Design the sequence.
């Protein structure tokens, strides 16, 4: 029993890995192997002996990416989405990934240098990260404030490096012998990187250096503030849109009034689960309920497990006072769930009593059913004994 | 008088320490001693002379942790929670802490190396930090955006190091002689760590370096934004759930309508206090009131101190205009208090006038009581004189 | 067709560049050239041969800025805004930019040093960044908390450097031989810059160093928190004021009740677009609608494109269920648009059903119109075949 | 005219400095001088010649602080607040500042070392920074999450340094020859300080180092998130309480209903202004209005300036459509103003139409008065001509 639980435990914790998807994983592994081979290929001590191996490995990766790109193109053309595909940045990443190295080799560039273009394969990560577009949008929306912070950064950079050049040029003609050298010091200091190749030695230089470092903290704070605030807002907005589509598939929500739907959409969290994954495990403390937007789950109640289809909900007992989960719940197919947390449920039900009433009714109905079943089962098992 | 106050002052400021609990403290002290001994054990100049002492110390710590683990297991088995215990990560930490070193020693690993496994004891800190689970949850919820930022990080890393390798490999065959070496430079720079073991020397290298550093600030900002926003939300949610349980124990709140309860739950702060701790001290400026969710407090009013049990409130005069505290309030047993701040009280009472009325009524009742008592006392002390 | 789309694609992505404006761009290019020339002028190995070239270049930039300043002044005087101009910080930047270098040269300062004053030209960036004033305001509003964090910073700095001086002065008389030297170590460590010129060597020094670094993270966190929160609030406030002015120009909003107008103003994003820029491209997924505050757009519906003037809206079909854009929309003149996102639209329409109804009506009217047109077109094209 | 404006301009920008207060300033200057003298006193090359001068300077500062402490104590005793004073941390700072150095000297500590205790004077900054208590409160409230992040920090620290010690001890017996040495590397890397005294050299070491640096960014992000969120909340709360007291002094607000008062209190910003300071200057763009909580201002309308006492408001025309300020407004005594921003005014007036109506009425009354006055003045000046 415990062993089985432990297994299910492992299955539970590795679910995100499986959810990641086999093809995606293969892709990232091949990408990793390719980039590692490319990096190894540039090492002077490895080059001689292992060249053929590494080259073979690199050509295999290139082949994989070529086939993948061909499949991308073919799929797009078949689906009649050729134009959208050709206009997407994805095409560029595919083309560059496939043709950059061969073209460089054909142009007579030496192999170790030509294969450096394989580092462009790292851009393929962008095809796996939908949220990257969101980051791009943050930079687009906040372009003006970020440009201002950057202007501030440049002002501090130039003025401090000019001052430092004047202060230190006599004491250290090496690292502060020209304004470009002082600029290098300033950028290394203002970003708080601090290599230590150029360090002021005079007292005045130390004072100015301290000011630049403190300005660096302020610059950090301002840019973090801009990026953090905007990213949070974008994230909320994107989540809302994605959740909104799912909410429309759950009949339960349709009975609520529009402002309640909007409010609940802001609060639900989406969860995509592969098949045969434990959602709820008996004996754990529960603090949320689940709506099934797509897929199906099985509730392991004795004597006969119950299956719940898309549009229904489960785990609501946790919100109605009974915080220990009473049954295991497992997906039977890849499912999309919407999670409503206890805290949000209380806020919601305070403003929309009809929601609480509807869930209460359903909850009580199930509770009494469970009770009856257990009663019947007890009677059944009591009779023969 | 002043001396006594000073003592109570010290008691007040050391309360968090006492609150920390004796057993927890002992545990952390033993953990600290064990880790320090383990660290000292690896020092080449200390090894010879102090070996027996340090080994003894390490074995003692190991013994302590073995006993502790045994108690953990026994408690769990007695309470019938064996399964939940065996499935928790706590078991792993306990097992590894007890068996890693002896097994390594049995396998013939040299003692200084075997004892290195004692560094795994540091994981026992996780058993003392309930909020760690919250941090884990943040990483789970924000996995997608964080993965995107990490993908961006990797892209900048690979592309900048490939470029830097091309730029600097002729000038510095040492630190930039291969792509892995350039990657090391890139990661040290992009995280703004800046060891200074690999530094670009050419002008182009300086320019690229500056770009990488600025990208580093952006990466910092994005990841801080994601973590900060999500952690704040998780914290609020967790607080709400914990406070909600306590609010249900205070009868005063039950008379409010549901939306007021939800609102007030968001605003209350929990405070766990050991016995004989001063909550309010006379003469201090007060800006909050207290509800007693569990325990008991004593209000030092003359002539006879008053005891307030769980479910009542005190310190409300501060919210009704009288900001200087008029009496000391001390716990008589370990208590859980709910704090309502002045600012929140004003917001609440604007939207829920019944709350303010109820507190006003109670406040006036007590005020007049105090007045009467003082009056009586004055009369009483005036009579004999 | 695809080629044309690709061109429009490029035009779409370079729009921000064109939007930047020719004169602004020229200004920044000249500024960049000037600063680069100034930096190059200080390099010992370049000075001899390229002096005349660089000096010519610098004089040209100076000339450009002189003319620009003259135009600024003339424009201001003609517009009768002389007083406001003379009192603005802009005048100082103009004057210093033009006169600092010539005056230094006249005073007999050697040219390479005199031209260093050209680094003050970088302040001209402030004239291009309206958001800089906002950053200044953040520092003004949050002066007290920032001063407190700075006081904390100074306390940690002094106490840790005094302690470190006592700990390390005997072991390292060089980098820790005096309190100012230890202060330099402390500031380099507390800002997590870490040059590595002064590093504690003793165990006690390492411990103190670790504490200072962790304090550095806390200082970072506090100042970032203050700046980020305030900057976000300022940004929101500024956006509201600017959007408010535009909202008053769209008749559609005037029919809403005041609280709806305030709410929608908080949600709209402004977008300034030059003429002939694609706003919506057919086939893309749409998640927002647009209101025209100023300017005009052309919707490419067949057979005859439709022009929409200021005060109207478009792209609303995306909010009403049809998420794929059905037509290209391009500006015909420089326009100012207000963007309403899908998420915000849902929130709004839940609380203000009249808004949704009005947009629905307009949307349905247009949809049927499109339908009729297509029908007619199909009949028309079917007849001759 | 312009010259006078420029002067008023300077006065305007230096107002914060004057507002800072003469005594506070003197205090900070003396503190600065004292700390600088103390730092200089430890420099080996300065010690001989300048000793008497520096010692004199230090004794003067000590004398100043002794007198100041005496005044503090005397004031407290006279005001009958002796007990509160003796229990405050301020007493400790005063005592330590006065007695630490003399006691050290009496104990026979050499003067340069004894005077190091003067670095404790830096704690006097805490007496000038009321917001420091707020920072302390943030650490108190967020103790649990911060402890968890710190536990995470310690876990990464110990595990990574143990691993790095195993990886690098053979390659670099110097910087990685013991676990404490590896711990020093880990803390320097995890805080992204990166001195560069201990740098991994092996490939495995580089990989682990990269992981530690990225963990460092995450630690940064988490702690920043905790501190930032809590500090922002504390700030808002504190502001509310301070503003609430002032709002109660403005009769205009008393006519509003309680929820409007609470809402407006959240939006108002406090501003303390010394006498004869320009608040509004004619011709500037206005985006806020002012309520006078205490003090008096003078509006320079022609022919006769008008004085407004505490409880009235001004600058409301900016909110009612006329954004260019029409008159200078100057304080005639130290005043406390409450600022209401345009954006907040719109939000407020949407929900509380009575507020807008009241301000409108007052605004129109004044506008017509101004009109009449100008009319009269014009007639008056037209008649003689």
Sequence:
């Amino acid at each position: 029993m415990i062993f089985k639980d432990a297994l299910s435990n492992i299955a539970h914790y590795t679910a995100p890995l499986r959810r990641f998807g086999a093809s995606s994983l293969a892709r990232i592994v091949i990408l990793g192997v390719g980039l590692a081979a490319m990096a190894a290929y540039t090492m002077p001590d490895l080059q001689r002996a292992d060249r053929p191996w590494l080259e073979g490995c690199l050509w295999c990766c290139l082949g994989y990416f070529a086939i993948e790109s061909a499949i991308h193109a073919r799929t797009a053309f078949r689906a009649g989405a050729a134009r959208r595909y050709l206009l997407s940045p994805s095409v560029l990443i595919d083309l560059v990934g496939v043709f950059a190295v061969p073209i460089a080799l054909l142009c007579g560039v030496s192999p170790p240098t030509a294969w450096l273009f394989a580092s462009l394969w790292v851009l393929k990560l962008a095809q796996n990260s939908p949220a990257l577009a969101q980051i791009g949008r943050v930079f687009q929306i906040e372009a003006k404030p970020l440009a201002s912070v950057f202007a501030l950064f440049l002002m501090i950079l130039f003025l401090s490096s000019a001052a430092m050049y004047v202060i230190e040029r006599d004491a250290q003609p090496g690292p502060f012998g020209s304004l470009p050298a002082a600029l290098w010091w300033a950028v290394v200091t203002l970003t708080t990187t601090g290599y230590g190749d150029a360090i002021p030695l005079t007292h005045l230089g130390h004072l100015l250096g301290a000011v630049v470092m403190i300005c660096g903290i302020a610059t950090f704070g301002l840019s973090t503030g801009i990026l953090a605030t905007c990213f949070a807002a974008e994230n909320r907005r994107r989540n809302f849109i994605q959740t909104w589509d799912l909410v429309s598939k759950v009949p339960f929500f349709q009975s609520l009034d529009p402002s309640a739907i909007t409010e609940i959409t802001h609060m639900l969290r989406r969860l995509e689960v592969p098949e045969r994954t434990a959602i709820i495990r008996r004996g754990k403390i529960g603090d949320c309920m689940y709506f099934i937007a797509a897929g199906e789950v099985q509730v392991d109640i004795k004597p006969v497990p119950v299956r719940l289809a898309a549009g229904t909900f489960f785990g609501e007992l946790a919100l109605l006072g009974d915080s220990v989960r009473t049954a295991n719940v497992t997906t039977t197919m890849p499912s999309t769930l919407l999670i409503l947390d206890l805290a949000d449920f209380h806020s919601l039900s305070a403003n929309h009593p009809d929601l609480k009433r509807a869930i209460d009714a359903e909850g009580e109905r199930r509770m009494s059913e469970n009770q009856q079943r257990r009663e019947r089962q007890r009677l059944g098992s009591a009779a023969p004994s």
Q: What stands out?
A: Chain A has 15 helices and eight strands. The two ends of chain A are 25 Å apart (CA to CA).
